[in-house]
Amino acid sequence: MEDMIHVDRAMSTQQDIKIKAKGVQVYYGDNHAIKDVDVDIDDKTVTAFIGPSGCGKSTFLRCINRMNDTIESARVEGDILLDGEDIYDPKVDPVQLRAKVGMVFQKPNPFPKSIYDNVAYGPRIHGLARNKADLDEIVEKSLRRAAIWDEAKDRLAAPGTGLSGGQQQRLCIARAIATQPEVLLMDEPCSALDPIATAQVEELIDELRQSFSLVIVTHSMQQAARVSQKTAFFHLGNLVEFDDTDKIFTNPQDPRTESYISGRIG
Amino acid sequence: MTKSSLLAADARTKKRNAAESRFKAYGFAAICVAMIALVVLLLSVVTNGVTAFQQTYITLDVVLDEDRLDKEGNRERADMAKVTTIGYAPLLRDALLTKIAELGIETELSERDVGDMISKEASATIRNKVLANTELVGETVSLDVLASGRIDGYFKGRVTMQSAARDANTSPEALELAQALADEGVIVTQFNWRFLSAPDASDQRPEAAGLGVAILGSLYMMAVVLCLALPIGVASSIYLEEFAPKNRWTDIIEVNISNLAAVPSIVYGILGLAIFINFMEFNQSSPLVGGLVLTLMTLPTIIISTRAALKSVPPSIRDAALGVGASKMQSVFHHVLPLAAPGILTGTIIGLAQALGETAPLLLIGMVAFVREYPAAFSSDAGLFGEAATALPVQVYNWTQRSDPAFVERASGAIITLLVFLLFMNALAIYLRRRFERRW
């Protein structure tokens, strides 16, 4: 397990708290999917959610930008504060929230439009660009930051769906960061990608940490160890353990965490 | 246990293979039956109907005698209108007699019987022509006039010498005379534009009957259906599929829409009669009422196909749009609807084609009426769609009810026209589907 851990990971414990979740409960109909979860997510940090399938990590992630609103039977209780503001306050418009909290999905899902239009869509609907030149700049910047500019610059008018899986996922990341979010949620962003594309996306995540707070759900413990500074371990809807990634992987406090990372459960 | 060889099929494999080849044979046989039925249908329609697109004309030099047509001699249209078509018929008869005499053809036919070789419609045509241009009076004009239905039938093989001998309306001598005139080039067969443009004609003059009013009525109705059913259907589908809460009420609505699609079309006719004609007092036989009834009938089809098209858009596209901060409506109109458009268009065109071929509900709202005049579109008080018209399938129904066998030919010709329209619409649906289909 030693080889997974990046020793040079700079950790400062004094970082601002970006998202504060207190006593979050999620129900799907009668099914109690998330039980009393408290998490503090720091700014400019990568936080990984790990745990066996069905443990509720994706559900919790989708609570952070209220994507669960689209599921009829889902009910969320408790508080999730973004910069101290309750995102489930009735006055909050989820559309405005999602502009601040971007999301990248498990399966690459570019719009069946050109690469340019994929990235430009967010800025357009939020009115972030005053003119065409502005928009061009945002598109180029986003594609560069998503490390896909070199591959895409000559084919901006080509459909986004014509790219390879890894390129599509990076395009989706470019699309997500084009709206200049403050938090980026990633729901198993590499599960549909091959190892090379995974490595590219991971590198990208590490870069994006400079500007955003990132939350990544992953099935791969190696990935969590490689890219994150903080790790939360979910099991059966409970948050079992939440600590610095180093600690979780070297010195887990809970026997369930230890069983999971050593491969005995999950 | 003996060791089995891969080279010899065992009993189970043989049985499975036999079952598979039997199934393929059944499928092939089914396709063959369907193809044969289609071929027989098309052949019978085409062989009966293709002659409707040909029409027999007699070329005459008609002397427009002033003494008969304009007794006052003042070229006033009002005075000249007193002369009815009965006054024009002798002119045509005389012209034909002159022609026969000029060509030196011997005939035992009476003058009256010679006159009957010309369609009764011809005198109306020439009267309209003269009234439209009164200066023609006194001149001799060269005209192609319609031959009577029996003469027309003779050149199309429908009327034979044997059948003419038993027929009160014609005689073998008349046919012989017609043949002699045809040999001299006086009687000619031309492409029948009138069939597509002229209105219906009475039982006595099948040679003049055309589909003009029926085609126009059908087009008007399609316009009404398209303008109402498409927006209403698509809007309700989008609401039900994307916005409506999923609860008992929407379930009930959904079940009822499916049920409506299965309601026999004649029921919509009764509904239309009750609501649009008796209650709202729209004109009977008007394309407006027909269009409204067909709209009601088409709506479930459009709603069901639109919902299916919306459902087939992967949810990941909606997630992607919501994920970058699009509102629900933006995600629907920017992403879901364009992807569903080919399916919606196809469904709409299929629905329209269904409406175009529908007869039963139209019978109940009086579209089966005999309509002799074009609807006077813009000038009338009833408005563009309020005047009486008929529709293609109803015209077919109407013509098949008439006794003269010439109308069988007309009805088959109308079916061919209807099939061409339907074929065109389905081809358009396929084209649009191919054109706008996008992969994701």
Explain what this protein looks like in three dimensions.
The complex is a heterodimer of chains A (266) and B (440). In chain A, 35% of the residues lie in helices and 25% in strands. With 266 residues, chain A is of the alpha/beta class. Chain A has a single domain (2-7, 17-261), classed as 3-Layer(aba) Sandwich (Rossmann fold). In chain A, helix 6 packs parallel to helix 7 (195-208). Mean pLDDT of chain A is 87; it is low at 1-13. Chain B has two domains: 54-191, no CATH class; 212-436, MetI-like (MetI-like fold), CATH 1.10.3720.10. Chain B starts with 10 loop residues before the first helix and ends with a helix. Chains A and B meet through helix 2, strand 6, helix 3 and helix 6 of A and helix 15 and helix 16 of B.
Topology:
The complex is a heterodimer of chains A (266) and B (440).
Chain A: E1 17-28, E2 31-42, E3 46-50, H1 57-64, E4 74-82, E5 85-86, H2 94-100, E6 101-104, H3 115-126, H4 132-145, H5 149-152, H6 165-178, E7 183-187, H7 195-208, E8 213-217, H8 221-227, E9 230-235, E10 238-244, H9 245-250, H10 255-261
Parallel strand pairs in A: 3-8, 3-9, 6-7, 7-8
Antiparallel strand pairs in A: 1-2, 1-4, 4-5, 9-10
Helix pairs in contact in A: 3-4, 3-6, 4-6, 6-7
Chain B: H1 11-49, E1 54-63, H2 66-69, H3 77-80, H4 85-103, H5 111-115, H6 120-132, E2 140-146, H7 149-155, H8 161-165, H9 172-183, E3 187-191, H10 193-197, H11 212-243, H12 248-261, H13 265-279, H14 287-311, H15 315-323, H16 328-356, H17 360-364, H18 392-400, H19 406-436
Antiparallel strand pairs in B: 1-2, 1-3
Helix pairs in contact in B: 1-19, 4-6, 11-14, 11-16, 11-18, 12-14, 13-14, 14-16, 15-16, 16-19, 18-19
